[in-house]
Amino acid sequence: MPGSSSNTERAGRLTRWLVTAPPAAFLVVFFLLPALIMAAASFREPGEFGGLAPLAAGGMNLDAYRFIVDDPIYAWILAKSFAVAGLTTLICLLLAYPLAMRIVRSPRRRRDLLVLLVILPFASNFLIRIYAWMIILGPLGLLYSPVAVLAGMVYVHLPFMILPLYTNLEKHDPALLEAAQDLGAGRWARFWRVTWPLSLPGVLSGSALVFIPVLGMFAVPELLGGTGDLLIGNLIKEQFLDNRDWPLGAALSLVLTAAVLAVAGLSAALTRNRGQA
Amino acid sequence: MRRGFWLWAAALATYAFLYVPLAVVVLFSFNDSELNASWVGFTTRWYGKLLGDADLLQAAANSLLIAIVSSTIATILGTMAGIALHRWRPRFLPFLVLTPVAMPEILLGVSLLLFFRQVLDLTLGLFSILAAHITFSIGFVAIIIRARLAGMDESIFEAARDLGATPWRTFVRVTFPLILPGIVAGFLMSFTLSIDDFVITFFVAGVGVTTLPLQIYSMIKVAVTPEVNAISTLLMALTLTLIALASRFAPDALRKSA
C-alpha cells in the first residue's frame, strides 16, 4: 500500500518528537533561558534593593565590565583562581597516576574492588569531606590558610582524576611494554616513551574534570581559607547574596564561563591533536 | 621488585589520604568531648542530641522529600533524553543535556536564582529547589541510559519491528526491560546527587526551606561540633547502603557511570 510507508514515517517522527520534547523543553526553560538571562543581566543596572533596576530607568551598559577591568583586584583574583586550579590539578595528577597504575596491574577480579574504594569516599557528602579537613587542620594550626584550601580542593576532586586515568591505562596493550623491553628500553624509558604518551588523553580529560569545578568553587575557600584566600566563586556568591549587585555578579559569572569554555576548548583541541598524531 | 614496592607504597598512601579524614570524622562522633581534638571516652550522646534537634530533623525530612520527587521526575526525563540521544543522535540535545553536568555548579545556581527572582518573581522554596535538582540530574541519568543502550545489539529492536510491534510495544516489551537496570541506577544516582547537593541549593533555597546540607553548612560555619560528626556518620551509612543497593540491582550500569 502506498500510504503505509508514509504512515510509519509519520509515526516515527511523532515518536521522536514525543520522546525528545519533554526533556528538551524542561532544559530550555531551566538551563538555557536562565543562562541567556544572566548574560543579559550583566549589561543592566543594579536595583536599589538588590536585583536589577527597571530597564527603562537603568538601560543597558557596560558598567559592570568596566568596573571589573578598572579594579585590578578582579584580575588578581582571577589569576589566583587559575593558579589554585592549576596547582590542584597537578597535585591530583601526582596522587592519581601511581594509584591508577597500581589498580591496572592488579588481577582483573580485584580491580573493581579497588576502583570502588576510590569512589566510596567520594559518595559521602561534599560538606562532610570539607568538614573532615577542618577537624584535622584545626589542631595543627593550619586551618584558614592557603594550605588548607589546597588540601580541601585536592580531596574533593581527586576521584575525577583517578577514574579517567584508570579507564585509559586499562586499555593499554601490555605487548607494547614487552616490545619496548625487548628492544632494551629501561624502566624510565618505558614509562616516558610508551605509557605516558599513550595516557595523555586520560590525563587531559581528568585534568579538565578537576580544573573546571575548582575554578568556580566557593565553599572550600570559604570554609577552609582565610580572608585572603577568596577566589572568583566567592566574589560571585558575594555579589548575589551579600552585596546584592546582581549585574556585577552576572558579569563575573560570564567571565568565569569564558574561562571555563577556554579551558574545555583547549583540552578538547589537545585531545584531538593527540588523536591525529 | 623495588619499583613494585614504591608503586604499592604510593597507592596505599593515596588510599590513606582518601580514608583517614573520614575515619577521623566517624571516630570523633563517638568521642565524649565538645572538642574534636583528642580522644576522651566513648559516648553515643551526640546521636541522641541529633534526635532532639528539631531544625535538623525538619531539614532531613525536606531533603528526603526533595530527593524522592526530583529524582523520580529526573529519571523519567533523563531516560527519555538518553533514548533520544542514542536513537536519533540529535544535534542540539547533547548541548542541553550535558552542559549542566559539566559546568561549575555555581553558574547554574546563580542563573537560576536570577531567573526565579527577577523573571518569575517567585518566592524561593520547595519549587525552585526541585526545578534546580531536576535540571542537574537529567544529564547524569541520560548518560547512564545512553551507555546502556550503546552496549546493546540493535538487531533486537529491528527484530521487534519486523515482527510488527508498534514503537510503543517495542518500548514496553523490549527496550524498557533491557534498560531497567540503567533506570534504577539513574534513579539512585540522582537521588544521591539531590540529597547531597549544597552549592546549587544554597542559591535557590531562599529563607523558607532548609535542606540537610544547608543545615550542616550553617552548623560548621559557626563552630566545629561533634553533632556534625554524628550526622555525617549517619549520612555516610545511608550512602553506603544506597551504593550497596545500586551494585546489587545494576552492577554493570554502576560501573559504566563511574
Could you describe the 3D structure shown?
With 277 residues, chain A is mostly helical. Chain A has 2 domains: 2-58, no CATH class; 65-276, Orthogonal Bundle (MetI-like fold), CATH 1.10.3720. Chain A has 12 helices and no strands. Chain A has helices spanning 2-41, 55-58, 63-70, 72-105, 108-122, 126-140, 146-170, 174-182, 187-216, 219-224, 232-242, 246-276. In chain A, helix 1 (2-41) packs across helix 12 and helix 5 (108-122) packs antiparallel against helix 7. Chain A starts with a helix and ends with a helix. The mean pLDDT of chain A is 88. Chain B is mainly alpha-helical and 258 residues long. Chain B has a single domain (54-257), classed as Orthogonal Bundle (MetI-like fold), CATH 1.10.3720. Helix content of chain B is 79%, strand content 0%. Chain B contains 12 helices and no strands. Chain B has helices at residues 2-28, 45-51, 54-88, 93-102, 105-119, 126-150, 155-162, 167-196, 199-204, 212-222, 226-249, 251-257. In chain B, helix 2 (45-51) crosses helix 11, helix 4 (93-102) packs across helix 6 (126-150) and helix 6 (126-150) packs across helix 8. Residues 253-258 of chain B have low confidence and may be disordered. Classes of the chains: A mainly alpha (277), B mainly alpha (258). At the A-B interface, helix 1, helix 4, helix 5, helix 6 and helix 7 of A face helix 1, helix 3, helix 4, helix 5 and helix 6 of B.
Secondary structure topology:
The complex is a heterodimer of chains A (277) and B (258).
Chain A: H1 2-41, H2 55-58, H3 63-70, H4 72-105, H5 108-122, H6 126-140, H7 146-170, H8 174-182, H9 187-216, H10 219-224, H11 232-242, H12 246-276
Chain B: H1 2-28, H2 45-51, H3 54-88, H4 93-102, H5 105-119, H6 126-150, H7 155-162, H8 167-196, H9 199-204, H10 212-222, H11 226-249, H12 251-257
Helix pairs in contact in B: 1-11, 2-11, 3-6, 3-8, 3-10, 4-6, 6-8, 6-12, 7-8, 8-11, 11-12
